[in-house]
Design goal:
This protein has 384 residues and is α/β, with parallel strands linked by helices. It has helices at residues 16-29, 40-45, 66-80, 102-114, 118-122, 132-152, 161-164, 171-194, 199-211, 235-252, 303-317, 322-341; strands spanning 55-60, 82-84, 87-89, 93-97, 156-159, 216-220, 256-262, 267-270, 275-278, 293-300, 350-360, 368-373, 378-381.
């Protein structure tokens, strides 16, 4: 029978056995290293950190800390980069937010870097301080934090709510921003090379120009990408389409995409009892198809107590799994130490938080435990 031609041109197909030699050679000869995060536990789960071509999703209820987590992760990667051949190579980070202003993210960064209470910055409190010494001390800390952030900002770009056009920007728009950012990033490196004071510095920047090509794109939140004309009954279908498109973006640009996703409890009718029930966050995970990694960020004052109960339950269920039991015991001891120190009474308006991994195609699923210092917009891992 005649073969119907496809409307779109397709790539040529070859036997996998014909590609294996090239694939193996690329694996063994590659000097690529994963990009580490600020969480040692998360790094273990990701086998060292973020990989090219991967799409990661952080789920969470409103107010759970998703934006703080993503913004801190972007700053950490932009500041520390990754190691290649014993050299620290910069990593370009593009942060796209549909709900924040760039200036507010900047103040969050100053909060974290110098542990300055957010109220002092957002309220311009130095204008009301009683003594010149107090005012001068705060201003010095702000200037110091700004100097630190200026170094981070060399590898970081932000497109905020003023340019991202909530409900209108598409994944194709994100790809265009990414390509433009990479051109700007590379041009800046070339300018630094021209202005380098000596041959050694030029050689280092030449190395960067070759290897600083692992882009990380942060999207906050992904549910606001181009859904303006989608009827409410089709939103779940469109949501799946967006997650596939973000995975394609990671593959086609050979980069990493990290996206936040807000979760809401969904009511459903229980026909037996005649009552309304609410589905759990875990039941909504299937709405992130294509994701290589999905985790739920939770926060609360009693969260650590709940985690200790979970660890005790796991310990009883996995007595025969020695390694798992050791991990559970270690986490329980860490949680006990945190509670004994009464860190929740400390400065920074701290609250407990956990990142529970429920899908990881290429690694482990060990939960990450944090103290979230909300006044300083910072997550600090417990144990790790």
């Amino acid at each position: 029978m005649p073969v119907k031609k496809s409307r779109n041109e397709v790539a040529e197909i070859s036997l996998f056995s014909q590609e294996m030699e090239k694939t193996l050679r690329e694996l063994l000869e590659s000097r690529e290293r994963n990009i580490p995060t600020f969480s040692p536990t998360l790094n273990r789960n990701l086998n060292g950190g973020l990989r090219k071509g991967d799409f990661l999703t952080i789920l969470g209820a409103p107010g759970s800390g998703k934006t703080t987590f993503l913004w801190q992760l972007a700053q950490y990667i932009a500041e520390n980069g990754k190691e290649i051949e014993s050299q620290r190579v910069p990593v370009p980070c593009l942060y796209l937010t549909f709900q924040m202003k760039k200036n507010d993210l900047y103040l969050w960064a100053l909060n974290r870097l110098e542990k300055i209470d957010g109220g002092l910055l957002f309220g311009r409190r130095w204008l009301d301080m009683k003594t010149p010494e107090e005012r001068e001390n705060l201003l010095k800390r702000i200037v110091k934090a700004n100097i630190q952030f200026s170094d981070i900002g060399k590898n970081l770009a932000v497109q905020d709510i003023s340019t991202m056009r909530s409900h209108k920007s598409s994944v194709e728009d994100i790809a265009a921003y990414a390509r433009q950012f990479l051109r700007v990033f590379r041009t800046n490196l070339e300018t630094q090379r021209k202005e380098a004071p000596n041959a050694e510095e030029k050689e280092k920047i030449d190395f960067f120009l070759v290897h600083a090509n692992h882009l990380v794109i942060f999207v906050d939140p992904m549910e606001l990408i181009g859904v303006e004309q989608v009827p409410y009954w089709e939103e779940s279908i469109f949501d799946r389409f967006i997650s596939f498109k973000l995975k394609e973006l990671a593959v086609h640009l050979d980069c990493t995409v990290v996206a936040a996703r807000t979760t809401f409890a969904v009511s459903k009718k229980n026909t037996d009892k005649g009552e309304q029930e609410f589905s759990s966050v875990e039941e909504k995970v299937d709405s992130i198809p294509g994701a290589d990694f999905v985790a739920i960020l939770k926060s609360g004052y009693r969260l650590m107590d709940e985690k200790i109960k979970e660890f005790d339950k796991e310990k009883k269920e996995k007595k025969e799994a020695k390694k798992e039991t050791q991990i559970i015991q270690m986490k329980q001891e860490q949680a006990g130490r945190v509670k004994s120190k009464k860190l929740l009474d400390g400065i920074g308006d701290p609250i407990y938080a956990s990142l529970d991994i429920i899908k990881n195609r290429k690694g482990g699923t060990e939960s990450c435990l944090f103290l979230w210092n909300r006044s300083f917009n910072e997550f600090i891992e417990v144990g790790g």
